[in-house]
Amino acid sequence: MRHKIKGKKLNRDSKHRKALFKNLINALVMHEEIQTTESKAKAIKGLTDKIISRGKKGTLHARRTIAAFLQDKNAVNKIVDVLGPRFKDRVSGFTRIIRLGERRGDDAMLVKMELVEKAQIVEQPVKKGEGKKEKQSKDRKETDNKDKKDEKSGS
C-alpha cells in the first residue's frame, strides 16, 4: 500500500525524474504548450503552478529560487517578467490538460498541456499593395475549384 507516499515515480530514479520535470517545465514556459503523456503532465502540474505563483511576486528572492530549480535564465526571466504580470489576477490553475488520444506504439494517453491565458498575438499591418494581390489570388483559386467541381458534376 502507498500510504503517505506523494507523487509518481514514472519508472525513473530520483535524479532522472527531477531532470525530466525541469525539462518539461522549461519547455512549457518557453513554448506555452507541450505534448506529453498524461501521467507526466499530471506530475508537473502542481510544480508548474507553484513556480508561476512564486514568479508573480517578482522579487529578487523569487527570481533566485526559481533559478535554483529551473537553471535556465530565459525561462526564469519569462516567468517573472511575462507570466507573472499575465496571471496577476489568477490565484491558481495556470495550466490546463487537454486529451489528444492514445499513442500508436504503446497506447499511452497523450495530452496537450498549455498555459490557460495565451499571449496576445499582435497582427502586423498589411501594406496597401500586398493585401489586394493575396485576395485576388484567393478569389482565383476559389473560382478555379468551383469550375472543376462543376465539370465533374456536369459530366
Would you give an account of this structure?
This protein is α+β, with helices and mostly antiparallel strands and 155 residues long. It has two domains: 14-115, 50s Ribosomal Protein L17, Chain: A (Alpha-Beta Complex); 126-155. It has five helices and three strands, in the order H-E-H-H-H-E-E-H. The protein has helices spanning 14-31, 38-55, 60-70, 73-86, 128-154; strands spanning 33-37, 95-102, 109-115. It has a three-stranded antiparallel beta sheet with strand order 1-3-2. Helix 2 crosses helix 4 (73-86) and helix 3 packs across helix 4.
Kindly summarize this structure in a few lines.
The chain has 155 residues and is of the alpha+beta class.
